[in-house]
């Protein structure tokens, strides 16, 4: 995604924010998802987080409250749809994290917009991926290619029990940190704890600017593999990965042995990938043996095409 396209999306988000601030004056509308992480394409949705801070309770995570806020915003959008016709197809998805979907008309083409309320974890996750994308351009290139492959292989459908797009990006981060030598991506949590460390997010929302200063990366050996070579190695790595015995930690940039005690939810999970800011398993959508086998076979099939039998 070009800088011009990102600037265009920023302007659209500002236009939406001005509309929302008519009913929620203190609201912030923050870029997240593939636009913020620089891992999207021209056809990617515009993901936005509507951040509204309660004087007493802070950024409320109560689902009912968030759904109520998005419903009020939807009513406002419907008025704009009838008056100005620049926003249309307004719909609320009643998921675990409620989403307000709409389409914004623009001279350069319509953009599909997804707005959540107070999903701050998604903002910080996107911010981290944004910095990884700026460290090495091969990372966003792999993200776009592998996402398309995963869609074609039917393993990028979390509603059907396979992987979500964020987990796929984390799998790429892990591979570029631990799956090849020399590593391409550093562990930003370790290098910059003031910005990326801990269970509680360190940077304030008003400091979450795209294209701000990059972390200081220590000099190390340069990996000169091409994106095509990395793609083949990525498929091979996950075709051979022992999901039953190993789990991935993004925050530690490591692979660890899975716990053996029977009552652990991690022990029962099919795939375990711990996110960068907490211990939540981002691959928890993979629950059935059928989905698990589908994912493993997709990696083995891709590796076989490029490298022969695994």
From TrEMBL:
Keywords: Magnesium, Metal-binding, Transferase. One of its GO terms (biological process) is RNA 3'-end processing. GO terms for molecular function: metal ion binding; poly(A) RNA polymerase activity. Residues 2-133 form the Poly(A) RNA polymerase mitochondrial-like central palm domain. It comes from the Eukaryota. SUPFAM superfamilies: Nucleotidyltransferase, PAP/OAS1 substrate-binding domain. PANTHER family: PAP-ASSOCIATED DOMAIN-CONTAINING PROTEIN, POLY A POLYMERASE CID PAP -RELATED. Its cofactor is Mn(2+); Mg(2+). Residues 229-280 form the PAP-associated domain. This is PAP-associated domain-containing protein.
């Amino acid at each position: 995604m070009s800088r011009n396209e990102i600037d265009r999306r920023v302007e659209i988000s500002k236009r939406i924010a001005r509309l929302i601030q008519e009913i929620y004056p203190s609201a912030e509308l923050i870029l997240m998802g593939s636009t913020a992480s620089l891992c999207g394409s021209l056809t990617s949705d515009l993901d936005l987080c509507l951040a509204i801070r309660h004087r007493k309770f802070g950024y409320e995570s109560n689902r009912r409250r968030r759904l109520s806020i998005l419903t009020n915003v939807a009513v406002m959008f419907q008025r704009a749809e009838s008056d100005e016709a620049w926003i249309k197809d307004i719909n609320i998805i009643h998921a675990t994290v409620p989403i307000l979907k709409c389409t914004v008309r623009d001279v350069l083409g319509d953009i599909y917009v997804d707005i959540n309320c107070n999903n701050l974890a998604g903002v910080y996750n996107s911010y981290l991926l944004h910095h990884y994308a700026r460290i090495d351009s091969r990372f966003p290139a792999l993200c776009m290619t592998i996402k398309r492959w995963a869609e074609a292989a039917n393993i990028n459908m979390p509603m059907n029990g396979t992987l979500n797009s964020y987990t796929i990006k984390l799998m790429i981060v892990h591979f570029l940190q631990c799956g090849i030598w020399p590593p391409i991506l550093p562990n930003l949590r370790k290098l910059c704890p003031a910005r990326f460390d801990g269970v509680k997010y360190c940077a304030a929302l008003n400091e979450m600017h795209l294209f701000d200063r990059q972390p200081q990366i220590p000099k190390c050996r340069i990996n000169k593999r091409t994106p095509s070579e990395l793609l083949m190695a990525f498929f091979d790595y996950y075709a051979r990965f022992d999901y039953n015995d190993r789990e991935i930690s993004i925050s530690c940039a490591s692979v660890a042995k899975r716990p053996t005690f029977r009552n652990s939810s991690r022990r029962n999970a099919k795939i375990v990938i711990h996110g960068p800011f907490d211990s939540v398993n981002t691959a928890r959508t993979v629950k059935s043996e059928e989905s698990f086998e589908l994912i493993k076979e997709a990696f083995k099939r891709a590796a076989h095409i490029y490298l022969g039998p695994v």
